[in-house]
């Protein structure tokens, strides 16, 4: 009996047709509807087939046109990161200084094009709607700015967040949600609630540099666990670390659209990860900041969905999906709720109320879902345009991830290139990128860069990418 999932069997069928030349570059793949009829499969299976082919780098979606075969080796994806031995946690020092050097250099430069941002361009956010909602809130309650909000945040917003979480099969109790100043504060609170200075915390590698700064600021020792752009965290490597002599107090993971890899962890891996952490008494801290930007109508499951022992602390944010200027995030800390609530009160008191009211007013309407669908479609186009341009302008041997959502591309340069040298040369001509060095305390990513795709493609962006290509080629 064939135990391979049906969607993968069909994907392999089409891969064989591409390899044999039956399906040629530029030809259109059968539509989702036709695939459903031809193979007698469900809509979700047909969509999974296309996602699998896109993940293999042989399929590209063209807006309002369909799915087309692309040259598979035009822009190869990075090979999965192999398992690595446990890293020496005593070597984990100084990442804050390295990140600060990069950020300060960027602040001093005159930036014309910013590829370092993980945000969307301001014009893609519903700013006018949010502004109108703020004005309505102030008119309705003229004393609003004179009152302090509760530590946990606006009750209506917390109920909305809990209700929306149900779509991803995640059960959050509204009364045990705390509104925070973005996901950064949420993760800070989670770590402060479950660790002490000197404890060991595991993270994905590479991971968001801001997280590395948080960990260093809390005097926590760190283990970096290899992750790949295909399936995220390497569970075999993690299991080896958890079985080692050094207890791992907590693990921080971005399961859906990991930053910077853009990986999505399969459901089987999510379930195994939650079980693994529970068995080893390692608190699992989930960052779901990018979940709403995944290219699916049906939200992906969260790690919290698989949690049976209340061992997962769920953190999320609206900074990337709705309004960066509002800095709204939240944390559902389960059995650590009381401690998190007190830490929140001690650290920053309650979050500003006006933005919470404006957001909850928007999120309660059908317009919010329509907005998210438009945003996801727009970002799909922008990522494809950026990826194509990188293939055209960067040196031979460059590879790039193909994330199924979000605003980020993780680009691997030929090994002879230094991402830090590339960063400084780009700054000289007013172009900002994120060098791979700051996403790890190791040197494994010194020839990678993170490129943001949050702005609509334009001649200015195209010219900037051409310039970056010329810089790389001049470096040899």
TrEMBL record:
PROSITE patterns: HTH_GNTR. SMART domains: HTH_GNTR. One of its GO terms (molecular function) is pyridoxal phosphate binding. InterPro entries: Aminotransferase_I/II_large (IPR004839), HTH_trans_reg/aminotransferase (IPR051446), PyrdxlP-dep_Trfase (IPR015424), PyrdxlP-dep_Trfase_major (IPR015421), PyrdxlP-dep_Trfase_small (IPR015422), Tscrpt_reg_HTH_GntR (IPR000524), WH-like_DNA-bd_sf (IPR036388), WH_DNA-bd_sf (IPR036390). Keywords: Aminotransferase, DNA-binding, Pyridoxal phosphate, Transcription, Transcription regulation, Transferase. Residues 4-72 form the HTH gntR-type domain. It comes from the Bacteria. In the C-terminal section; belongs to the class-I pyridoxal-phosphate-dependent aminotransferase family. This is 2-aminoadipate aminotransferase. It comes from Pseudomonas laurylsulfatiphila.
């Amino acid at each position: 009996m064939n135990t391979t999932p049906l969607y993968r069997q069909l994907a392999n069928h089409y891969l064989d047709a591409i390899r044999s030349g039956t399906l040629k570059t530029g030809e259109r793949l059968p539509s989702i509807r036709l695939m459903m009829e031809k193979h007698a499969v469900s809509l979700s299976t047909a969509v999974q087939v296309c996602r699998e082919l896109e993940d293999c780098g042989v399929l590209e979606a063209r807006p309002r046109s369909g799915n087309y075969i692309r040259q598979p080796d035009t822009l190869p994806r990075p090979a999965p990161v192999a398992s690595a031995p446990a890293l020496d946690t005593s070597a984990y020092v100084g990442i804050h200084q390295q990140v600060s050097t990069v950020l300060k250099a960027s602040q001093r430069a005159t930036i014309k094009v910013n590829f370092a941002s993980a945000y969307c361009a301001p014009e893609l956010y519903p700013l006018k709607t949010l502004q109108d909602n703020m004005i309505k809130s102030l008119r309705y309650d003229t004393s609003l700015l004179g009152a302090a909000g509760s530590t946990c945040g606006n009750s209506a917003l917390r109920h909305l967040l809990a209700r929306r979480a149900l779509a991803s099969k995640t059960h959050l109790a509204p009364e045990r949600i705390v509104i925070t100043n973005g996901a950064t504060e949420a993760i800070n609170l989670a770590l402060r609630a479950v660790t002490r200075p000197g404890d060991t915390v595991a993270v994905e590698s590479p991971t968001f540099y801001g997280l590395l700064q948080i960990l260093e600021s809390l005097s926590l020792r760190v283990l970096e666990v290899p992750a790949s752009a295909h399936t995220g965290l390497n569970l075999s490597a993690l299991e080896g670390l958890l079985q080692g002599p050094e207890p791992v107090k907590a693990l921080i993971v971005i399961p859906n659209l990991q930053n910077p890899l853009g990986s999505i962890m399969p459901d089987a891996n999510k379930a195994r990860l939650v079980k693994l952490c529970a068995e080893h008494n390692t608190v699992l801290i989930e960052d779901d900041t990018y979940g709403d930007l995944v290219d699916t109508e049906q939200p992906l499951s969260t790690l919290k969905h698989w949690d049976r022992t209340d061992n997962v602390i769920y953190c999320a944010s609206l900074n990337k999906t709705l309004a960066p200027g509002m800095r709204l995030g939240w944390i559902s800390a389960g059995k650590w709720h009381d401690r998190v609530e007190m830490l929140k009160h001690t650290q920053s008191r309650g979050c500003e109320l006006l933005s919470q009211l404006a957001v909850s007013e928007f999120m309660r309407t059908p317009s919010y879902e329509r907005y998210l669908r438009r945003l996801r479609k727009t970002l799909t186009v922008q990522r494809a345009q950026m990826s194509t341009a990188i293939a055209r302008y960067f040196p031979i041997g460059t590879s790039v991830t193909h994330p199924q959502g979000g605003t980020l591309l993780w680009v691997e340069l030929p090994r002879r290139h230094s991402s830090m040298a590339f960063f400084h040369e780009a700054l000289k001509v007013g172009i900002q990128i994120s060098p791979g060095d700051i996403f790890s305390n190791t040197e494994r990513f010194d020839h990678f860069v993170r490129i943001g795709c949050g702005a609509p493609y334009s001649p200015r962006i195209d010219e900037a990418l051409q310039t970056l290509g010329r810089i790389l080629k001049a470096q040899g």
